[in-house]
Amino acid sequence: MKPPTYPSDARCAISDILCAVRTILLPRLLFTAACACLLSCVCAAPASAQQAPPPAYTPPVGVIVLDPAHGGTDTGARGETSVEKDIVLQIARTVRTELERGGYRVVMTRNDDSSVSYDDRAAVANAHPDAIFITLHVSSTGTAGTVRVYYDQFAAPAPPAAAPGNAKPQPPLSPGLAVWEEAQRPYLDASHRLADLIQSGLAQVFSGSPVTASGAAVRGLRSVAAPAVAIEISSVSVSNADSLIATAGPLASAIEQAASVFRQASSTGAR
Question: Are β-strands 131-138 and 147-152 bridged in parallel, bridged antiparallel, or unpaired?
Answer without folding.
Answer: unpaired
